[in-house]
Amino acid sequence: MSKTRLAQLCAVCAAALLAGCSFIPQYQRPAAPVAATFPAYTNAAATAIATAPVSASSLAWQDFFADARLKRLIELALANNRDLRVAVLNIEQTRAQYQIRRADQFPTINAALTGSRTPNSSNSVTSLYNAGLVTTAYELDFFGRVSSLKEAALYQYLASEEGRKTTQISLVAAVANTYMSLLADEELLEITRQTLVTREESMKLSKLRFDNGVASELDYRQAESLTEAARVAFAQQQRQRALDENALTLLVGQPLAGELPTAAAATPLSQATLLAEVPAGLPSDLLTNRPDIRQAEQLLLASNANIGAARAAFFPRISLTVGVGSASSHLSGLFKSGTYGWTMAPQLMLPIFDAGRNTAGLESANAGQGIAIAQYEKAIQTAFREVADALAARSTLADQLRSQQAQAQAEVVRFKLSDLRYQGGVASYLDLLDAQRSLFSARQAVVQTRLAQLQSQVTLYKALGGGWKEPDERPLSLKAETQLKP
What we know:
This protein has 486 residues and is an alpha+beta fold. The chain contains twelve helices and four strands, in the order H-H-H-H-H-E-E-H-H-H-H-E-E-H-H-H. The longest helix has 67 residues, at 145-211.
């Protein structure tokens, strides 16, 4: 047989050994356990969402958020947040594990130098020295055990990449929501400060009227109670702002000197245009748009590959140990002419009795697949619920805000009229205090409802899978193909 023919035959045999066969079950994506469409909402807010031109997953967060300070905070968070850093390092770790599994498909060649001296029956010592290249216990993957483990490691790597995107989505949404809470805190602080000033002036007037015998002590004590209540609300609001600032500092991962909105520079929520509109699409879109669902599916594929490895364990395992080099009974003659030699030691191991170990391994792999299917279906159901909740909030909060603003305007007029009636002696002081209380509550409710409306838009954007894509980011399949090539 010619050398060329022999080389071709060796190449074919090597390819057959590397390919082997596979016992991985054929994958079928489980049916989505949710309705075909999201609940319908027919008001103007829902129509705006439905007719928006760009889907949430394809809209980069830089285009979704309009506030420049918020964009800056998100950039800092993406660069410094420790949870996101851990997610990125998890990718590197699982990628290294995949490379280890992939390397198991190829023989490991080592340089070896060994020596032995053994006494024999003639009261002398037999010496043997070897030097050369050695491949030890290389498994010939006829039944696909090694390749199945490699496939499982690959899917786990891809799942970690999706996990990083999920972490980024949550981080972007958390920074945006906390930032808007700070804007609301500033506005509520200003409302509380104005109310406190008004009530202090009212209390001074009541004290003066009481000292001059014009008003009763009851009127004075009621004014004093309302003033102290305003001080309590002011202290609570200051505390809430500090807590939100601390939360944002943790999310961003560094001190925020000069990055936070102040009372003088903050944009009132009623005038803020922070967000773009996005369409809800269909529940089936979530399967490709939500990284957490894709992550669950990659883990399901990994569990599927583990079944293939568990099945292959029932079949013979063939390993090969090969050495080539020089051998001599004297160390000084180890590399002299004529000392060349080689060894080959194949080994076949067929499981006969293992006390049920392989059966238990297969049962564990099947159970793992069942768990992965349930987790995948739960991820879809959770995503559906989050989108449906966000749509419900988004469609009703606009109507609620309009009514809340109308109520606040009515309370402003009521307070003015009550003050005029009290000054004219037509109404009691209790009516004026009640109007003050109602106006304060109504103004607070307007800010809180506006905050909930903006945060519901962020939640919808997050629930639809928006927030991970960068303007120049390639699809995952292209990235994986580039990074994972041998």
